[in-house]
Design brief:
The protein is mainly alpha-helical. It has a domain of about 130 residues: Tetracycline Repressor, domain 2. The chain is built from 9 helices and no strands. This is HTH-type transcriptional regulator BetI.
Length: about 190
Amino acid sequence: MARPKSDKSQRETIVNATLNCFHQFGYEGTTVARICKATGLSAGNIHYHFGGKKNLLEEAMRVLLRDVRARMVDSLRKADSPADRITAIVESNLHPDLFNQPICITWLHFWAQAPHAEELSRLERVNRARFRQNLRHEFGQLYPRERTELLITQLVAMVDGFWIEKAQPGATIDSQQAIYAVKVFLQGQR
């Protein structure tokens, strides 16, 4: 039986509440009961749409990954050179709408759960491969293969490190500072 179109709105409400609960209570402290309280929906509604907390984390990550990808595709359309496209890739991964503490905390929960859940692990592998492949294509036009691979490793570590830093209590780094730090690093590679 196909779900009604109004379900899309409920699904978005549930995912947003899940993100907020992960931020407020952590993965272990997030319960269907807390999500119900935040959404005003019944546990039956939550289970109908997602089945449980692991599936909610999976859907939240799918939403976040789609947001990053949409921003990247849009930014890449406007970029003319490999260097501009590298900057576009970085900026889309550190965009202020995504690079905030609630989302960074959710991302850490995702990373922590991925080794233990096949679908989350698959999402992480696909995301990491896509990020690295996009960088490989652009760096490969500027540098030899060995240097390209080293730069990709360094840049991915920087971006991941900024996300981890942003998830910490009292973190002060913002999107502009993180992007600037990456740009300074990239300028030093020329």
